[in-house]
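SAMPLE LOG
Freezer: B-3
Tube label: C17
Construct: single chain, 155 aa
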Amino acid sequence: MRKSKPKKRILLPDPKFNDTTVTRFVNSLMYDGKKSTAFKTFYDAIELVENRTKENGLETFKKALGNVCPTVEVKSRRVGGATFQIPSEIRSDRKTALGMKWLIMYSRKRNEKSMKDKLAGEIISASKGEGAAVKKKDDTHRMAEANKAFSHFRV
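STRUCTURE (predicted):
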């Protein structure tokens, strides 16, 4: 058990939109420490979103992230030899982290040619309330709803 909680690292806002959420997203998107490549991919995807939807790309991204972020999740807990899935509320920073992770994961699984196309497609579909990342959120919520009966086991 650790003595104290680790300090939160302060993220610098991104150069183009001056937003720390974008930096968090790009840090999750990045492979092998190639941050500039990840930024280029993200900015190209946002530009594609703007071209396809004729709306502000950053606003569409924020809307998509809002549609993907879950509010409840299930955690496994052993009680008397049986394992129960217990629904619990999620902290705000974990909400956004899960939302970003799902958005990136399902973008990578799409069938478009380049990562910017995949990311743009997933952002557009998530902002409309459809797509695989939104389905994952709905599944998580459905599972929490189904296991509501075990919520009294909460720690």
